[in-house]
């Protein structure tokens, strides 16, 4: 089901930060890899994202997480830390 063209909503960076708690650099990197909805320019100084695309991305991430399809980062080896290494 697609929204009518006049009903589409866009969000600016601050609103995106409230919805998606990721750093700007992480979002940018994910956009470059095609893993996050692409931003677009309304004017030369106004960048926005399509709200429905961001919500669809969140839903897909939620379903992938519940299906254990998202690989978690490995735990760091605390013995290799420069400050306060743990010795066994």
From TrEMBL:
InterPro entries: AlpA, DNA-bd_dom_put_sf, Prophage_regulatory_activator. SUPFAM superfamilies: Putative DNA-binding domain. It comes from the Bacteria. This is AlpA family transcriptional regulator. It comes from Aureimonas glaciei.
